[in-house]
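For reproducibility, we list the full input for the iron/sulfur cluster complex.
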Amino acid sequence: MEVAMLRAYKKAPFTVLEYGRCSWGACYFCGWGKKRANTTLEQLKAKYTRFLERHRGARVIKLFSSGSMIDPRQFPLDFTRWLVEEAKKAGVREIVIEGKSDDVTRENLEAVRVEGIKVTIAIGLEAADDIILKRYYKKNTGVADYIRAAELLREMGFGLRSYIIVNAHPVVYRNIEVQEEVLERTIALAGEYSDSIVVINAYPHQNTRLAIDWIEGRWRPLDKRQFYGLVGRVLSRLGARRVEEDLYEYEGIPVELDHSNFAFVPKIPRRLWTRIRGVGREILLHPHFEVWQDYFERFYEPPRGKEYALLLPCSYRKPYKKSKTHRAILSAISGYKWFPKLHLIVVSTPGVIPWEFHDRYPFTHYDWPEWMETEEVKRDYIQVTKERVKRYLRAHGGRYKLFFAYFHLESETLEAIRQAFQELGMEDKLVEVLDRETYEAIKRELGKERVGSSVVRHPLALERLRRVLKSYLEDTAGNTINASTSNG
Ligand code: SF4
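The corresponding predicted structure, in tokenized form, follows.
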């Protein structure tokens, strides 16, 4: 098959038309099926009409519905038929709508069949294994239901697009060989009946047991590299041809790899929120912190245009932006032209926290009472924080020209950051902002032998922060230095 044809489904225009709720709604990994959409058919008609106006004459269009458009318990079938008729009038040659295999009946198919346009039903086969389907994925349909549906679709002239899910339960996550073997069988079966196949990476949808498994450490989503690696191995064993990183040809049909079908961030259900308070390893490695650190390392992308990182301490008051410390820091530097190039990143008990997330749970719900720290606790803190900083640097370090670290000089966090940069051989990318001279001047002014973490909001420290940033980011005329010339 030509590459353009293989890409036809993947590149096809699509729209989301959610209505009611999936009549099953119990699949282990699926959050969409648990939602009830509060849209009206009139709203959907208006949205769809606008969509069709933009895509008149399209070869294929795809409609997503979170459930089944051929299930009269969810969608009135005369509405689904109307969708098909309108697509035909707009010159569309093929329409893909979602359905469940138990809804593939003669009666339902007759109700949506329209002469002169191909109707393809996208069905979640998920895995060609009844034990996995029923016991773990909690599907209400099995392999035989899929085969029956596929044969009926073929007999009645409908198309079939098959969805296969990877890594959608802790049991398969723990047994990679089983996962590969089942995936191989599943693609082979889907290949016998389908016009196209989509292999989907399971992500932690909100309100699913799978998301709780992640939060509680029983399961982890596969990142892009792991997912492409696993599916690529299986497809090459099956003799599939790799067309692009996320597109293969198998038995003359396209197999699309969908590693991230929605942008997710960890969402810890409110009923599990807790105040994470105290010191020690158990606090540092709290599962709610761990899940976010995993996210920042493997799924997060730093914002575009942030060429420099400014590493900051946390504050007792949360969210940080409400604290005196962060208000003082922000008011000292936010007015400069180069400020938008700075990515603020807090490094603290929960780990590495890009500023965009600082007002989310659990970063608003922890306290680390420093006065309870022992030498052992400090050592643990440095060790855990260093490893987290290293993980962030390995994943994203190349995105930044320089890292400025603004901490008081006795800070364990600063020590952890130093060690992380040293161990990765990246010392030349780290600029420690506060120096001994400023520090001694502050101590003299305060008349104290030791100054605590609040030193970072002292006017002399803030002045030093401004000076250091300006020296790297501004030329003598006050213009922001082009990033490519600012490393020296
Ligand atoms: S995967 Fe499909 S059948 Fe299962 S709950 Fe989600 S929408 Fe419903």
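The CA atoms of residues 29 and 210 lie 5 Å apart. The longest helix spans residues 375-396. Both points were considered when choosing residues for closer inspection.
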